[in-house]
C-alpha cells in the first residue's frame, strides 16, 4: 500500500542553536493510511517537534516530510496539507477559538471557505462523532477537560482530514477525561478509518496501537507492536518509560517464578492467566 | 466568586427585538443617538421617550434591567444637572441664596441634558440587552466590511473581540487560582492604603500576564494548524440574512426618527 506520510532522512534543530545537538536526528518513517501509530518518549525526546514538522509549522533542517505526496516546504500546498493533517494539542483551553462550541468546530471549515450549508453539515457530523452533540450551544469554559478536548477533536475532523496527530492530548486531563479522549481516538481510527499518530507518555493509552515508536534523544530507539514492546520491560526501564501496571505486574510475577504469559494488558487477561495456573 | 461575572448583559428572550438582525439594530441605535442630539423640543423628547418604552416592552425586558444600566452613570447625570442649574444664567430667577441662584434657563437646560443622557444610555443598553456578544461582533464585522478598502481591519477587530470573549472566563478563573495560591503562601491583598494594595497585586498580575502570553502562543499555533490565514477567503457557518421584518422595522423606525428630527 502507498504510504500517506513519509519522512526521509529528517534532521531538525532550532535555527539559533547551530552548535547544539539535533532535536531530531535521522528520522525515517513511513505511515500507511488507516494506521494507528503511537509515539512515546520522555520529555525532550523530540516527539512534539515531530508533530510540528508533520504539518509544516516547523520545517526540517535537512531531509523532507511528505504528507499525501505534498512536501511541507512547498508554501503553496501548505494549506491543503494542513487540511489533510489535523493536530490536536495538549492544552484543551488554548486551542478553542470561539465562545460557543459549534462556532468553534466551524472555525476550521470556515477557514477553508466552504459554503454555509456544507459547514453546518460537517459541524453536526463532527460533534456527533465525538459525542458532543448535546453541548453544541454550550460555552467552552463550562465544559470539563475531556469534553473540551473532544470539541477540539471535532474542530479538526470537521475539516475532513485523512490523518489526525495528537500531541499529548491527555497530559492535562483527569483519568475520566483521558478515558473519554482515548475512546474517541480509537473510535475514529477503527470506525472512521482515520490515520492516527498519537503522541503520549501514558503507555496504558496505546495498547491498541498498530505500531509504537519509542523516541529517545531525537532518535527512534525502538519500533515494535505493543505486544513485542511491553515484553522488553528492562529496555523500557532504561529509557525511563513506564509500562502499563498490569503488564508490569505480570512481568514481575513471571520473574518470581510463576508460569504466566507476560503479554498482558488488561486486568481481565491477567485474571484469566492466573486462573489457568495450577 | 469571579466565575459569576456575566459577560455583556445579554438577556435571552423570545421577542421581535431579539430576532432583529444585529446590523439593523446597530444602525437604528446610531440613528437614534443622532436624532437625540439634533432634537430640541419637548414634543420630540416625549416621542423619543415613548419610543424607548415601547421598544423595551416589545423586547420583553423588565424595566429594572434598564434602570440598572443607569446606575454607574448617576454621578455624571446629577453632575450635569447641578452644573447647569447653578451656572447657566438667563430668564426668571427662581431661587436665590447669597451668591447661589437658579434661573429658568439653567433649570430647563439642566433637565434637558439629564434627560438626553438618560435616553442615550437606556436605548444603547437596550441593544446590548437584546443582542448576544456573538451577534454584535458578527454585525459589526459585516457593517465595517465596506470600509476595508480605506484600511479598517473589520475581520481582525471581530476576531479579536471573539477571542477576548472566549478567554475572559478562562483568565478570570486563572486569576482566582493564582490569588488563592498566593494567599496560601501568605500574600496579603486586603490591607494597606491604595498604593500598597496596588503593589500587592504584582504577584497576581505577573504570573497572569506570563500565562496569557503562553496561551496566545498556543492559540496562534492551533489557529494556524486549522488553516487560519486571516479573513481572506473565509466563509461563515451562520451567515446573516436580512428578512422582510428587518426591512419593515428598519424603514418604519427610520421614518419615525426622521419625522421627529424634521418636526423639531
Describe this structure in words.
The complex is a heterodimer of chains A (278) and B (264). Chain A has a single domain, classed as Rossmann fold (3-Layer(aba) Sandwich). In chain A, helix 3 crosses helix 4 (116-129). Chain A is globular and about 65 Å long. By secondary structure, chain A is α/β, with parallel strands linked by helices. Chain A has helices at 47-54, 78-84, 101-111, 116-129, 145-157, 175-190, 226-229, 233-238, 245-255, 267-276; strands at 3-12, 24-32, 36-40, 62-67, 70-71, 85-88, 163-167, 195-200, 211-216, 219-224. In chain A, strands 6-7-8-3-9-10 form a six-stranded mixed beta sheet, sandwiched between helices. A four-stranded antiparallel beta sheet of chain A has the order 2-1-4-5, covered by helices on one side. In chain A, a hairpin with a 2-residue loop joins strand 4 (62-67) and strand 5. Helices cover 36% and strands 21% of the residues of chain A. Chain B has 264 residues and is mainly alpha-helical. Chain B has two domains: 2-131 and 240-263, no CATH class; 156-225, no CATH class. Chain B has eleven helices and two strands; from the N terminus they run H-H-H-H-H-E-E-H-H-H-H-H-H. Chain B has helices at 16-19, 22-38, 42-58, 63-70, 74-87, 104-130, 133-144, 154-184, 194-200, 202-225, 244-263, and strands at 93-97, 100-103. In chain B, strands 1-2 form a two-stranded antiparallel sheet. In chain B, helix 2 runs antiparallel to helix 6 (104-130), helix 2 runs parallel beside helix 11 and helix 4 (63-70) packs across helix 6. Chain B is flat and about 70 Å long. Chain B starts with 15 loop residues before the first helix and ends with a helix. At the A-B interface, helix 2, helix 3, helix 4 and helix 5 of A face helix 8 and helix 10 of B.
Amino acid at each position: 500500500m502507498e504510504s500517506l506520510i513519509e519522512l526521509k532522512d529528517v534532521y531538525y534543530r532550532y535555527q539559533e542553536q547551530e552548535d547544539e545537538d539535533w532535536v531530531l536526528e535521522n528520522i525515517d518513517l513511513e505511515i500507511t493510511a488507516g494506521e494507528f501509530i503511537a509515539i512515546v518518549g520522555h520529555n525532550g525526546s523530540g516527539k512534539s517537534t515531530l508533530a510540528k514538522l508533520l504539518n509544516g509549522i516547523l520545517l526540517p533542517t535537512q531531509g523532507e516530510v511528505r504528507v499525501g505526496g505534498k512536501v511541507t516546504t512547498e508554501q503553496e500546498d501548505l494549506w491543503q496539507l494542513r487540511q489533510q493533517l489535523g493536530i490536536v494539542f495538549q492544552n484543551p483551553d488554548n486551542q478553542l477559538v470561539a465562545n460557543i462550541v459549534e462556532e468553534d468546530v466551524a472555525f476550521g471549515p470556515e477557514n477553508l471557505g466552504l459554503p454555509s450549508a456544507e459547514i453546518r453539515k460537517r459541524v453536526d457530523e463532527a460533534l456527533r462523532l465525538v459525542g458532543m452533540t448535546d453541548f453544541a450551544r454550550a460555552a467552552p469554559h463550562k465544559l470539563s477537560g475531556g469534553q473540551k478536548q473532544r470539541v477540539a477533536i471535532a474542530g479538526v475532523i470537521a475539516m475532513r482530514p485523512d490523518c489526525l496527530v495528537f500531541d499529548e492530548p491527555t497530559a492535562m486531563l483527569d483519568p475520566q477525561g483521558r478515558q473519554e479522549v482515548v475512546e474517541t481516538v480509537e473510535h475514529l481510527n477503527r470506525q472512521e478509518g482515520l490515520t492516527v499518530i498519537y503522541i503520549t507518555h501514558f503507555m496504558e493509552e496505546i495498547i491498541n496501537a498498530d505500531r509504537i515508536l519509542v523516541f529517545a534523544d531525537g532518535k527512534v530507539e525502538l519500533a515494535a507492536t505493543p505486544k513485542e514492546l511491553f515484553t522488553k520491560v528492562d529496555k523500557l526501564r532504561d529509557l525511563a518509560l513506564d509500562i502499563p501496571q498490569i503488564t508490569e505486574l505480570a512481568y514481575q510475577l513471571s520473574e518470581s517464578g510463576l508460569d504466566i504469559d507476560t503479554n498482558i494488558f488488561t486486568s481481565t487477561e491477567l485474571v484469566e492467566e492466573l486462573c489457568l495456573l495450577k | 466568586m469571579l466565575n459569576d461575572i456575566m459577560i455583556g448583559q445579554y438577556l435571552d428572550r423570545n421577542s421581535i427585538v431579539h430576532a432583529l438582525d444585529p446590523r439593523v439594530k446597530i444602525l437604528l441605535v446610531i440613528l437614534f443617538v443622532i436624532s437625540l442630539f439634533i432634537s430640541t423640543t419637548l414634543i420630540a423628547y416625549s416621542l423619543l421617550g415613548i419610543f424607548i418604552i415601547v421598544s423595551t416592552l416589545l423586547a420583553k425586558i423588565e424595566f429594572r434591567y434598564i434602570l440598572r444600566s443607569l446606575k454607574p452613570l448617576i454621578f455624571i447625570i446629577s453632575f450635569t444637572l447641578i452644573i447647569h442649574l447653578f451656572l447657566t444664567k438667563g430668564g426668571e430667577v427662581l431661587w436665590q441664596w447669597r451668591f447661589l441662584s437658579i434661573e429658568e434657563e439653567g433649570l430647563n437646560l439642566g433637565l434637558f441634558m439629564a434627560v438626553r443622557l438618560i435616553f442615550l444610555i437606556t436605548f444603547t443598553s437596550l441593544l446590548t440587552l437584546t443582542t448576544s456578544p456573538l451577534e454584535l461582533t458578527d454585525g459589526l464585522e459585516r457593517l465595517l466590511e465596506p470600509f476595508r478598502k480605506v484600511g479598517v481591519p473589520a475581520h481582525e477587530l471581530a476576531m479579536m473581540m471573539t477571542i477576548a470573549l472566549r478567554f475572559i472566563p478562562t483568565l478570570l478563573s486563572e486569576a482566582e487560582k493564582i490569588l488563592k495560591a498566593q494567599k496560601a503562601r501568605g500574600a496579603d491583598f486586603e490591607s494597606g492604603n491604595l498604593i500598597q494594595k496596588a503593589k500587592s497585586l504584582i504577584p497576581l498580575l505577573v504570573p497572569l500576564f506570563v500565562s496569557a502570553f503562553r496561551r496566545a502562543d498556543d492559540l496562534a499555533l492551533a489557529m494556524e494548524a486549522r488553516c487560519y490565514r486571516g479573513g481572506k477567503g473565509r466563509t461563515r457557518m451562520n451567515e446573516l440574512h436580512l428578512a422582510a421584518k428587518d426591512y419593515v422595522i428598519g424603514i418604519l423606525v427610520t421614518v419615525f426618527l426622521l419625522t421627529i428630527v424634521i418636526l423639531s
